[in-house]
Structures are given as C-alpha cells and as structure tokens.
Amino acid sequence: MSDLPASLPNFAAGVLCEASGDRLLPAIAQDVNSGRVLMLAWMNESAWKETLSTGRAVYFSRSRGKLWRKGETSGHQQLVRRVQVDCDADTILLHVDQTGAACHEGYASCFFRSVGADNSIEIHEPRLVDPADVYG
Amino acid sequence: MSDLPASLPNFAAGVLCEASGDRLLPAIAQDVNSGRVLMLAWMNESAWKETLSTGRAVYFSRSRGKLWRKGETSGHQQLVRRVQVDCDADTILLHVDQTGAACHEGYASCFFRSVGADNSIEIHEPRLVDPADVYG
Asked: Could you give the CA distance from residue A84 to residue B109 in angstroms, rounded to a whole number?
C-alpha cells in the first residue's frame, strides 16, 4: 500500500481545466489560528511555485484562466504558514493567516451555509464586510 | 456580488471525470472534534444524495469509476455531523466523526506531510494502523 508518489505535488494527476487545458489540483485554505476551513481553490504548477516562493497564496482561476494572487484586488491576502500535500500528492492544504474575509461574498469563510438532511439551507453568521465596499 | 446559486450543490459546475464522464465536486472531510482536515475526495450527485440520506460519507472514486462508501472495506467510516457548501456551491465540506484512520496509508489524516519552501518533505506523525492489517 505504501506507494507514496515521489514528486510533490503530482500535477499530472490533476483534473483537466476544460477552458485552459491546465491540469489543476484542489487547494484547501485553512485558518492557522482558528482551524476553520476558509475556501477551496485550484492550483496549476505555476501557482504552486509562486505560493512556495512568495509565502502568499496564489491560485489558478478557472473562470479567468490565469493566476489569481489572492487579495490582489480585495487586499484580503493569505500569508502561508505551512504547506501540506496529501497521501496521493493530488491535494494541497495551506495553513494561512487570512487578512479580512476569505470569501468574495464578504463572509469570513466561503463555508457560511449549512445544508440539512432535507436540503434546507441555513446561513449561520453575518458578513464581515460588504462585498460592494471591497469589489464595487 | 450576491449571486448565490439557487441549487445546492451545483454539480453542473463540477470538474469532468475523464474516465466516467461524471461531473464531480470536491468534498473536504474535517474532523468534527479536532478540526483537523482529514482528506479530500470527490462526489457526484448520487454520492451527495446517499451521504445526506444515510448520514455516512459516500464519495465517487475517480479511479474505480463508482460510488465509494468510505469505510466499507476498512471499517474506517465517517459519520457526518454537519454538511456545508461554499459560496459558489461547487465545494462540499463535511464535518465528520472519523472511525480509525482516514488515510489508506494508515495515518489519522491524509495530510501527514509538510512541504518546505525548498520542496523538502517531512512526515511529522506516526501511522495509526498498518495498512496491511486493514486492506491486506
């Protein structure tokens, strides 16, 4: 069972970005202080390298088809304190110091909604910031 | 900015599974007690519905091209205590009670390795179980 991949991360095993042709791996950002999961975004190899070299989270935007330096527009950047990869080397976990709100909707985390067994949806926290103030 | 999708989750926005043609969303499992991120796997709509109806984590295995009822072979099942979706409704977060080891390598979490800025890799914990005992 111990067939740990030698190369980390293994972008060849990534999912295909149909728009750009890139191979992308999911990257989870977790708040290094609270432990809260803040968001999930995607990385190609360039985003990975820039994240490691700068210590700031850089993702690949599937919708825009280019690197997304988190916080470039909003100021809500993520300082990367620790980087992990999973057993299969196809998922990345960043432990980050989050400035402001991780979510473009103005919430601390993109996971601000819970889903019940009956598919009911509950928002259980207030916005930290008004998105119109940040992106408007 | 408040363009929250009405349908949760939005599988049409999922990544394409090249082997099966399914649209898949990433699903993060986080330990409900420790807050530790345990693993990331994938869900299609069937996996999502079965997870909600049974209260146990069910994923879609990209390699096997079928539903993967977590713990079916290993006994290391995940009881789902809370379900969240993100702002774009294209990532799922499960808060789970994990039995045994989440990782098929025998570690508590699939994230048992850290990567340094120089790409050095460090394993920072012992295995909980011997994979050969579970899957052998």
From this structure: 11
CA distance B115 to chain A (A): 5
pTM of the model: 0.94
> What per-residue confidence (pLDDT) applies to A18?
87
CA distance A79 to B1: 25
Q: Are B119 and A8 in contact (CB under 8 A)?
A: yes
The CATH superfamily holding the domain A12-135 is Phosphoribosyl-AMP cyclohydrolase (3.10.20.810)
B88 reaches A (C-beta below 8 A): yes
Question: How confident is the model over B63-77, as pLDDT tens digits?
Answer: 999 999 999 988 999
Residue ranges per domain, chain A? 12-135
ipTM score assigned to the predicted complex: 0.94
Among chain A residues, CA nearest to B86: A111
Distance CA A131, CA A82 (A): 28
